[in-house]
Amino acid sequence: MSGESGPADRPAAPVPQEPARSDDRRSVVVHGDVQGNVSTGDYTLNVVYVDGKFVETESVLELPLREPPPLRAPARADLFGRDEIVERTVRQLTEGTSVQLYGAADVGKKAIAEEVHRKLAAQGRRGHVLAPRAGETGTLESLYQRLTEAFFGKTFLRGVDETMLHEAVAHVSDVHLTVFDCALSREDVARVMHTFSGCTFLFTSPYPTLPDTAAAHHVQPLARAAAIKLLSSELGLTLGPVGLQNLQFDHAYRMAEGKPQRLRQYAEFIKGSDQWRARAAREPHDQPPPVDPDRLSPRHQAEALAVALSEPARSALVALATFGVPLADAWFAPVTGDPRAAEAGPELYDRRLVTYSGGTYRITEDAFAAVRHQNWAPTAAATAAEGLTAGLTAKTAPPGPDPYLLLTVARALNDAQQWVLLSRLVRVAAPAALTAGRGQIALQLYMLGKIAATHGGMSKDLRYFVSTEEQIRNLLKGDKLAVAAALALLAAPVAPTAKIGSLFSYLAKLASANTAATAGTAAVAVAAAATVVVVTNANEVPAGCAEAKQIIAPTQRPTDLRTTKAFVERSRSVAAGLRAAAGKATDAKVKSALQTRADERNSVADAKEREGDEAGMHPDVVAALVASKALQEEIKDTQEISPVCSNVLE
User: In the chain, fewer beta carbons within 10 Å around the N or the C end?
Assistant: First the structure.
């Protein structure tokens, strides 16, 4: 299913209709409380959202498989020192081994994967490439939904049964799958590889989670020699050691942290300097003028590039910073209110202020900081809402924007208390989110619609939003939330006691769930929570281990983690402490283990922050889920650090 919207007079939300059969689908009338998945015969059914209504679709066991497209062959790009890892990855994938590229953000994992795609395309390989979507939590369930959409052409709104999916693709072979920014655990990675056992996978991840460790390759920042080649190539000059020294290269290399994107940004900054061009015209190229190191910090030179933008490009950059969601060219003008902004993409990309992938532009971290430091007024939510509403209801609408953009704009309208405009936006945005298969975003939009209708005194809109939101919630979620909450309570080190009576009332509908399956899953959860890590003593304490022990010691663990915000703050604090400990380590294994765990902690915090709390969830349920997640991460701290610091982790 595409994200396109139809004509302006199309029904804006699900309307109950009489069942109408066609050759391959049935319309579904949703009444009352729907529990779990709907089943008929031997198959579990699912639903899609088409033309303003929910439509029943066949099980994945009945749907025909689509022919995978040929892998896209991007233009050849010089990766500077990455040829060996590219060749090794291609060789392993060709032999049928799945591969993982892991490392810190912005070190070039995606560029390496693109070069791998180019070589696989030359072999005639077919497959699918999945990039993360804004606002998506990156769970195994969401990945299964994306893969199901790729293989069967259906954007399901319910979760896909893993066993049936495995059976449906049992005969698939010689198909390649790339999953960018995969944050799944080792266990979940193993499960998805088992489900699609006839496919090869290429994962890019922040840390190693591939079961086959020999195929997990650590992508390091560019080495100094490779960075010199990259900068020289970007400048179009062959710079000697003296020139590089005068360019404050050592400072630039240190500040760029070996990240190719930042080094290219430095080159763009230098090329844009009038002083550079004037001196280069009359003096040897290997002796450019000295540059103030402060001006070569990533944020400062991003500011210089941003200030020099044309006004349409600046307004597009501000919109990207305001809403934090990638945008296609077609939506620059509607979101900013400036028709000229439609042509801003290439200018932003040339200045290295954005990255471009999958037809959309994403602002870089340094450009985001530069926009904020300039104190430029953010893009008005009202302007964006008017443009999005008009674009979504136009008869010739472009492919829809990322549904998370619609939610972000709606939240901004809610903060600004612009109730009428918010209600109008929700009426067109929520169906667009459902059409794109983003049921959770649609639910959040309808909840914002209820708030707007309540505060704005729009009784008719309120009745509409209340009934529609309840209908969709029952259809999509069933008992999943309550089951997850109960398992979290079982896995928590200490079950919360405050308001426990009301919590049991909230979970009362678990009585209709499959007791045996729930008990089995709960046992697994309890077993995981009770894991005991055994460590040994040694005589010598490696540098950095004592500091690591202090960070993860039980006495340092807060006892009042009851909110997602508190969990995120704790995770970032642990990550910062472990990174500092890694800086003091002299043993390579200790340094690598501490730094890797710090990266993992930060990734977990990022994912949890993006996920947020389920609206309307009981505080005790939130506390139980947070406590369970915190315990899991504390266990992992000890498990991953103890092999190199066992003598101090008693």
Answer: C
Q: How far is CA 75 from the centre of its chain?
A: 26
Answer for the pair 642, 649: CB distance below 8 angstroms, yes or no.
yes
Answer yes or no: pTM beyond 0.90: no
Query: CA-CA distance, 519 to 516, in Å (whole number)?
Result: 5
Nearest to 255 by CA among 217, 218, 300, 213: 300
Bridge partners (DSSP) of residue 27 are 55
Structure confidence by residue, pLDDT tens digits, 587-634 = 877 887 888 888 888 888 888 887 776 666 667 677 777 877 887 788
Angle at 371 between CA 367 and CA 377, to 5 degrees: 155
For residue 502, the SS3 value is helix
CA dist 80 → 84, 235, 335, 584 (Å): 10, 15, 38, 30
pLDDT digits (tens, 9 = 90+) for 300-315: 778 878 888 899 999 9
39-40/43-44 β-pairing: antiparallel
Q: How far is CA 476 from CA 43, 443, 471, 611, in A?
A: 18, 10, 9, 18
CB-side neighbour CA atoms (13 Å) of 438: 26
Helices and strands (H, E) in the chain, number of each type: 27, 12
Report pLDDT for 89: 95
CA atoms within 13 A on the CB side of 477: 19
Number of CB atoms found within 10 A of residue 167's CB: 14
Return the closest-CA partner of residue 471 out of 510, 451, 450, 443.
443
pLDDT tens profile 401-451? 899 999 999 999 999 999 999 999 999 999 999 888 888 888 889 989 999
Kindly state the tokens that stand for 140: 């195994």
Burial class (CB in 10 A: 0-12, 13-18, 19+), 150: middle
The string of DSSP codes covering 204-264 is: EESS---S-GGGEEE-PPPPHHHHHHHHHHHHTS---HHHHHHTTHHHHHHHHTT-HHHHH
* b/e sequence 397-416, b meaning 16+ C-beta within 10 Å: bbebbbbbbbbbbbbbbbee
Contact 342, 361 (CB under 8 A): no
3-class DSSP assignment, residue 509: helix
Tokens of 603: 């990734």
